[in-house]
Amino acid sequence: MNQIHAFAERLIPLPVARVRAAVTDYAGVRRRILTPDFADYEVRPGPTVACVFQGQRCEFEVSTPRADTVVEADRHSSLVFTWTVDGTGDTTSVRLSLARDGANGPLGLLQRVTAPARLRLVLADLLANLAQASSGVAGGSPHSDRP
């Protein structure tokens, strides 16, 4: 299998503690920042988050290996989201990365060429929505018109 990777980063003009709290607020903020790529979102004990991501049923186990990192690993596939939240003063840097196994052969080549760009848009939308939700400003996805 070949790995598919994508990431997005954003500076949010808020204290790091506030943004970290938003990233880990699965029942509130996180539900509100989801893009149309997510469906059937459900918070379960564990902490575990179940949803459908781009047509794939997922059950993410949440862990915090470091104070600045939240890892969401799907129990049924190789899909992993990693949130890294760091900053000083009133500015926070958030990096969101995604990794998953892709196909081999010609399909794998196509996935490695096309998937990262599409996934970067999804991750950038999540971060834009996080910035809005963290600051208390309502709003939609900046790429809500994308296919």
From TrEMBL:
Gene3D superfamilies: 3.30.530.20. It comes from the Bacteria. This is Uncharacterized protein.
